[in-house]
Amino acid sequence: MKRISILLLFVCITLVSYSQNTRIKDRNSIGWYAFHSSFKLDDKWSLAGEFQWRRENVISNPQQNLFRLGINRLIYPGVNIRAGYALAETFNYGDIPLNNLGKQFTEHRAYEMLGLNSKFGIVDNSHRFMLEQRWVGRYSDVSLEKEDEYVYTNRFRYMFRVQIPVKGRIIADKTPYVAVYDEVFVGFGKNVNENVFDQNRLGLLLGYRFSPKVRIEGGFLSQIVQVGREIGGRNLFQYNEGIIVSTNFSF
Known about the structure:
Elements: H1 2-21, E1 24-40, E2 45-56, E3 61-76, E4 79-90, E5 105-120, E6 123-138, E7 149-165, E8 175-188, E9 197-211, E10 214-231, E11 234-250
Parallel strand pairs: 1-11
Antiparallel strand pairs: 1-2, 2-3, 3-4, 4-5, 5-6, 6-7, 7-8, 8-9, 9-10, 10-11
């Protein structure tokens, strides 16, 4: 039995090593710059909007522009739901583009979100569950200048985030804080190809709350993306690392 266990362990290690060695890895330096805002309508309802200006080579080349709108409903303290629409414009970046024709493409999304927030001692933590219905632009011919088809896919996202004040026990006005989050993306549905695992994002941030209406945070971002196509029978992964800066306004 011991020999069988050792053999199985050796086989598993070999398979993992092989799968990693057969990956094509595209590494990029990125910079993401985001603007988030919320508009409170009453004690239960609010509107949310954001724009993300995502760049490759930190700032010099376009990676993606993302607009997102939504309406929030507070169920009870610490629990809220949101539904909305997002528009993403992805550009040709990196050594191996996401689009097999090397063209930029548009994506339309509808989404539904559940947010859970709680506090343990000085630690604020949050869970975000999101479903996305995606219509991704595709070109049927290389000569076209605009997408003529849209492929429908589904995606599930889960993010866990913790943050703690640098001083004191709560994140109050004029308080710096540190935050860590990780978000995993999983694609599903008949049109999902190689990327059932779609991507993972890890952020390490330093923030500052100026007032209940304004805060800013920035730090390190790591993004791992599995592209939904193979090249020569090999899976394509992007390893994107860089900075993220976001401003948050509440009205």
